[in-house]
Amino acid sequence: MGVEGIGARVTRKEDRRFITGKGRYVDDVKVYGATHAHFVRSPHAHARVKSIDTAAAAKMPGVVAVLTGREIVDDKVGNLICGWMIHSKDGSPMKMGAYPALAPEVVRYVGQAVAVVIAETKNQARDAAEAVVVTYEELPAVVSVKAAIAPGAPQLHPEAPGNVIYDWSLGDEAAVNDAFGRAANVVKLDLVNNRLAPNAMEPRAALAQYDAAEEHFTLYTTSQNPHVARLVLSAFYNIAPENKLRVIAPDVGGGFGSKIFIYPEEMVALWASKRVGRPVRWTGDRTEAFLTDANGRDHVSTAEMAFDKDNRILGLRVKTYANFGAYMSLFSSSVPTYLYATLLSGQYDIPAIYAEVMGVYTNTSPVDAYRGAGRPEASYLIERTMETAARQLKVDPGELRRKNFITQFPHQTPVIMAYDTGDFGASLDAAMKAIDYAGFPARKEKAKKEGKLRGIGFSCYIEACGIAPSKAVGSLGAGVGLWESAEIRVNPVGTIEVLTGSHSHGQGHETTFCQLIADRLGVPIEQVSIVHGDTDKVQFGMGTYGSRSLAVGGSAIVKAMEKVEAKARKIVAHQLEASEDDIVIENGEFKVAGTDKAMAFANVALAAYTAHNLPDGMEPGLKESAFYDPSNFTFPAGTYICEVEVDAGTGKTSFVNFVAADDFGRLVNPMIVEGQVHGGLTQGIGQALLEHAVYDDSGQLLTASFMDYAMPRADDVPSYELHHTTTLCPGNPLGVKGCGEAGAIGASAAVINAITDAIGTNKLDMPATPDRVWHAIHAA
Amino acid sequence: MYQTHYHRASSIDEAASLFAKGDDAKFLAGGQTLLPVMKQRLAAPSDVIDLAKIPALVGIEVTADRVVIKAATTHYDVASNAQLQKAIPALAELAGLIGDPAVRYRGTIGGSLANNDPAADYPAAVLALNATVKTNTREIAADEFFQGLFATALEDGEIITQVSFPIPAKAAYEKFRHPASRFALTGVFVAQGKNGDIRVAATGASASGVMRVAGIEQALKSNWSAAALDGVTISSDGLMSDIHGSADYRANLIKVMASRAVAKAG
């Protein structure tokens, strides 16, 4: 480890432009002659579109065009797709309803776009949008999963009778039934995983241009995965062949999963740019973000856990209803199935697991991956069930967990995942020590004397990220592979460009990826540039989500570096007349070990590009590429312990302490890791206490602004105490596991476990608002 | 379609006459409600008449018995005024709890009262302290001023010029913040006048806005202490019920906030 290498707390290179207002976001990009698009959106949750009269709008000042779903159909543009096939228990494929970009006949959620006005200015577009007359025939709407699957419920899609998309299962039902038959004790819990709005700081935006001479499109878009966007827009939406479409995701202000998907707005902007012959720009406002960004979570579950007389888990049975919203978003089908049920073993050695998941359509906005994507739902379920079990079985919650921990690795769970390595006892010990668990009973008693309710809660989470081995996900129905690409271009005087298929929208790749190069090749980080986000510059990559960029993207960089290093050694060995095996890298020089014969890396590069004295048969240049396909998921895991005080008079929860002991394998930049954990914990706490996207029974969104959707603020969350234990990941050359989602995955259960401990009742759902906690106290 | 004309009035009379001339004019003070509403296209006044720079409308005067706050004085100025902090600390504290610093640098007492948001803080102080709202045409007692959800006794075009507060013997405000908007989910202002009158006003709880709480006033009359409220039941009738708090939860908060305010008032 050097000053700038792996393990160094390097301050982020990209921050200078972000905090001085020089970030270049989609909305900042200036294009001559750009028009502005404003969407006409449905005020109804479910309605037939009888007519759309655009005549008056088309005549208004500055209006270039008013377009509807009819024109999209006429131009043979495809519907939006879902890229992961899931089959129900009976073998039938998931029931997917058509998902048009602009609804031609039926609207199915409030905010769904039915038309678009394109005008010279944003305000002219807004004014004209108000003049578009849409005649709707309202239809009854269903908002909850329970109502949607009830007999006689309004049907959203002809393809999905009963509004059921799939009825899927994983595990061994017979083995689980047998386990419950033998159980000494059974613990049962009903849980809700509340619906969340992602709210990245930058709303979604798109800027599309069509070059008629070349028949070539350029799209700037707020995407976490520009190559995937290009693939989908080309192959499925039929906008243009891939070689005639350039997608650029410049600086993007946060994604958290919500910017993975290719939404109607960028598709319409792209299509319209050719149709109107002018560049088309759309920048969403916050209300549109609340209405249309893919929401997260929204599960209703029942969990049952069977224990033997020694309190060892015999089996787990789970039934989950997952709300998909009105349409299946791009990855929606995978989130409550293969990203969820496969984590139901938690950190525990559970012999038998059986999970059933029913995916259901409702008249709400589409639901898809959001920080954690399926793993927060699994972790919350397991960890609340374990805490409930400890209370019911009258044993210490830490000791019940420890008794059931997996201790031998690799460990094959009954739900597909095979954990490679871990030391769950080490993180539990670290967290219990840090929070002074032994001292808690005395603190609780003291608080009680002062009229306060104090509680403590555990969450021993594990998750699967670093997605994913392509063959494995392909066999489970994924339409794509989940490898990553890297190209290392060494320039003639030794500076380097790393072109990565990953995309940084807050993760700090421009710094950490440089650290990888610095660590191995000794090239200072200011001499390394990370290039990402432009499909014209970077070869195909799968993008950033699922905490994969270091484990998979970083490993691709390592593989490319191996090739660069191998070629460099050959050049040095040849020029210094030494054996390749005797070459070592020291302080940025390639040295013959035990001598003072050395070549600075810059000179190696120059040698490669002047090609005056290369080994016979060697091609000039020093540029290598690698595609890395992981062999397994990675499994960050840890223990979070939360201590709270509940004000019985108001139901408000305050934090006394929040301790995290995470195992992320090797840390490349500990400062960035801390930032990720702080952010993740804050989102997990936000889910536990504050956030909730709520629709009323008629399908109106009640939480369409920050006046009603409570985002966590600095004074809502504690100062976290972070610890790390380390078991290196054996699956990738860096030994890293990834850390971006862990906090959001594990925090919620710790908070709710602490509050239920404080108030003495288990019956509490998220968000545990003061109103709900007060009612729980007084119902008990 | 949303074109408006901005006028900066230099006197109250000029403001009144500009208002009369406009088709559909609105007064602008801090703009903390009007501007967001206009941005969302929920209002499109033909004329916006800015009161914030009229000298006669800005300032704070503290005498032996009264605090007078001119209508266009910002929350920040109220919260940070040393004399006001000494005379009615609860009022300075309340102003400091409104919104956030950005809101407090612009928002005004006149704007807050004229708008009468059911969860605004100032109405609780005005009602509990039995203040007098003075306009460019008359004086209106607190008990007459607030007339329901976003409704006041003000006539069309009438301008609040100042609010005059009698200095109480004891007073305090306890605000339970709405987790999202940080308005009062329920806020209770309790006051004991120098003449012995006890007044308690709750905001954020009723759908009609700020209200007196007779049950608590009664209990405090016989015994000014937090414990006196133990036996009081607050009805949830007429109280708001939404995703952030049910009516019975708000009823509970009225009692709890009142009790804590009494303890704070001393």
List the helices and strands and how they pair.
The complex is a heterodimer of chains A (780) and B (266).
Chain A lengths: L14 H5 L15 E7 L5 E7 L1 H4 L4 E6 H6 L31 E2 L5 E7 L2 H10 L1 E6 L6 H5 L14 E8 L1 H10 L2 E9 L11 E7 L4 E6 L4 H10 L9 E4 L15 H13 L3 E4 L2 H7 L6 E9 L5 E13 L26 E10 L13 H19 L3 H8 L6 E2 L5 E2 L4 H11 L5 H10 L3 E10 L7 H6 L8 E7 L5 E5 L8 H13 L6 E4 L17 H27 L7 E4 L2 E4 L5 E3 H10 L12 E6 L8 E10 L6 E11 L6 H21 L30 E5 L16 H18 L10 H10 L1
Parallel strand pairs in A: 1-12, 10-11, 14-15, 20-21, 27-28
Antiparallel strand pairs in A: 1-5, 2-4, 2-6, 3-5, 7-15, 8-13, 9-10, 9-12, 13-14, 16-17, 18-26, 19-20, 19-25, 22-23, 23-24, 26-27
Helix pairs in contact in A: 10-19, 15-16, 18-19
Chain B lengths: L4 E4 L3 H10 L3 E4 L5 H6 L7 E4 L9 E3 L3 E5 L4 H6 L1 H6 L1 H8 L4 H6 L2 H7 L6 H7 L3 E4 L3 E3 H4 L14 E7 L3 E8 L6 E9 L5 E6 L7 E2 L1 H9 L24 H19 L1
Parallel strand pairs in B: 1-3, 2-3
Antiparallel strand pairs in B: 4-5, 5-8, 6-7, 6-8, 9-10, 10-11, 11-12
**How would a crystallographer describe the biggest sheet of chain A?**
7 strands, mixed
Q: Mean pLDDT of chain B, nearest integer? A: 97
Question: Helix count of chain A, per DSSP?
Answer: 20
Spatial strand sequence of the major β-sheet of chain A: 3-5-1-12-9-10-11
Coarse morphology of chain A: globular
Task: Determine the most extensive contact between two protein chains.
Answer: A-B, 26 and 18 residues
The share of residues in extended strands of chain A comes to 15-25%
- Helix fraction of chain B, binned, reads 25-40%
The geometry of chain B reads as globular
Explain what this protein looks like in three dimensions.
The complex is a heterodimer of chains A (780) and B (266). The longest helix of chain A is centred in the C-terminal third of the chain and has 27 residues, at 549-575. Helices cover 29% and strands 23% of the residues of chain A. In chain A, helix 10 runs parallel beside helix 19 (742-759) and helix 15 runs parallel beside helix 16 (549-575). The radius of gyration of chain A is 27 Å and the shape is globular. Chain A is an alpha+beta fold and 780 residues long. Chain B is α+β, with helices and mostly antiparallel strands. Chain B is 33% helix and 22% strand. Chain B has helices at 12-21, 34-39, 75-80, 82-87, 89-96, 101-106, 109-115, 122-128, 142-145, 214-222, 247-265; strands spanning 5-8, 25-28, 47-50, 60-62, 66-70, 132-135, 139-141, 160-166, 170-177, 184-192, 198-203, 211-212. Chain B contains 11 helices and 12 strands. In chain B, the strands form 3 sheets. Chain B has a 5-stranded antiparallel beta sheet with strand order 4-5-8-6-7. A 4-stranded antiparallel beta sheet of chain B has the order 9-10-11-12, sandwiched between helices. Chain B starts with a strand and ends with a helix. In chain B, strand 11 and strand 12 form a beta hairpin. The chains are: A alpha+beta (780), B alpha+beta (266). The A-B interface holds A 123, 126-127, 130, 649-652, 689-690, 692, 694, 702-703, 706-711, 716, 769-771, 774-775 and B 1-2, 41, 176, 179-181, 242-246, 249, 252-253, 256, 259-260.
